[in-house]
Amino acid sequence: MSGNTGVDISRTFGALLIGSLSASFLSGAVTIQSLVYHKLYPTDEAALKILVLAIWLLDACHTGFIWASQWEYFIAFYGNEGKIDYIPTTLALSIATTGILTFLVQSFFAHRIFLLSKRKWSVVAPVVIFAVLRLMSAAATTGTMLHYRSFIQFRDNVRWLFTLGLALSSMVDIWITSSLFILLKRSKLEGGSLDGVIDTLILYTFETGSVTCAATVVSMICWIVIPTELIFMALHFVIGKFYATSLLVTLNTRRGLRDVQSRGSSSRSGGRRAAFVLDNRRATRISKDGFIGSSSQTRYQDVGKGTVTELQINVERSIQYTRDSF
To answer: Which intervals hold domain DUF6534 (predicted)?
Structure first.
């Protein structure tokens, strides 16, 4: 079949098959992370629970679209050489699903940037604008694929559209990672007792941001350099999974961050003691036995010097409150 049509099966449908298997494996990880979230954080606000549920449903739909397209390629169209270049509806819908999932995850991180920047719209506005453009590009890509129904025609007529979507996604990832890094470093320089937590957050930021950005960039390079092969589409299958995992891991690591913070607070307060202050003052009224007592303090008379030594006990208590969004 490959000799007659000029199509390298191993680099087209073979790549799609490997990409589908990898996406299914990552989809299982997304499901586990979702279950862990609902188990560990039952008291979270409704908005976060709805977001996690939406991410899981979109991921499940995305996996279903992927395998439905593989069914058409390997079962329904088996042996039909005229369908090798065909774009199934489910394959086109998988791109739109990835775009929606990516938009939700990037909006979540944009909200975190908005809070960390003390509600500065100038910092978060580029993320929102590029994320919306990325979503529109994904929708347009799906529409044009359904219109042409051919990889060759799609590549010859609107090749720039798919490139634009991947480029916008990479720009948003870079902006989010850079903004979070700068804001977290600035928070650390301001001082406080959250240095360990901030260091961990910086590490998580680089790990999650670099994975999604790297997958998007590699897919774009394959699309530009070898557009006749479907390696770019195989990589696109796993991009949405990386985004879903990055959001869920960010939410599920909050308990670990709390443990880091509590250990740091206990180690700093372990050597703290109550302050004892001795204050010498003149007695205004002294009883005959030389002793004055009260409910709040105790004074002892030094009969030889005619002075009173006052013993004060000051107890200091500090309460630290940290929001999960930080």
So the answer is: 170-255
pLDDT of 319 higher than 60: no
CA 230 – CA 252 distance, rounded (Å): 34
For the domain spanning 7-266, the CATH number is 1.20.1070
- pLDDT of 284 reads 47
Question: How far is Cα 177 from Cα 108, in angstroms, rounded to an integer?
Answer: 13
Residue boundaries of the structural domains of the chain = 7-266, 277-314
Q: How far is CA 1 from the centre of its chain?
A: 44
- Name the β-bridge partners of 293: 298
Rg of the chain over all Cα atoms, to the nearest angstrom: 31
Cβ atoms < 10 Å from Cβ of 293 = 9
Instruction: Give the other-Cβ count within 10 Å of 111's Cβ.
Output: 15
> Using 50, 70 and 90 to split pLDDT, how confident is the model at 180?
confident
